[in-house]
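Could you please review the protein record set out just below?
***
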Amino acid sequence: MDVAIVTVGDELLAGDTQDTNSTWLCGQLTERGVRVRRVTTVPDEVGEIARVVNEYRAEYDAVITTGGLGPTHDDVTMEAVAAAFGREVEPHEGALAWLEEHGGYSADDLVAGTTNLPAGARMLPNEEGVAPGAVVETVYVLPGVPAEMKGMFRLVADEFSGERTYTTFLTTPQPESELIDLMVTLQETFGVSVGSYPGENVRVKVTARDPETLDDAASWLRNRIEIVDSPEVSETT
């Protein structure tokens, strides 16, 4: 399963707010065996959001947007997603009913537009806040407030899955330039995916489709490079 993430907000592009949502989502999706193919940040503009959502929903199995939900002047994501599908936004009776039952709100308590969703959308309740999210075909519209986004994603997490993979990290003091030929040989010999991430040391990430191949590939590499700590192995499904 291939997914794109679209984060929405002028404050992200201005550097006023750090985007932690996409990092968290990437981790959650990777653990489920889902490949995140794009992470894109767009401004609070209907046209820009709609254009990117429309492009990505045609290319990938699902699109997740975060940010821009609510009734304020710059919360335009619902309108933009509706536009991407050629739909209108309209009051969602299920969203109002959920807020009345679980949030203690009445229609008179809510700012106009709070429960407006794209026509035909599936409502996602906001258990940590007020503004609901939505699913429109393969597009998942989540809030930008991290606690609200995480709570809402957990409601749909089981809808994201992929092929099980196994990963280990090896850390070496050797520079990346010394590892190039080894990485190529490792990939060709074992059919694994390899990434290297420089810092104080270089972390080498090896990913395989079964634990036996991972063990063989990691052992092969471990015998050919300097290791500064023990490998960490994780499984994703």
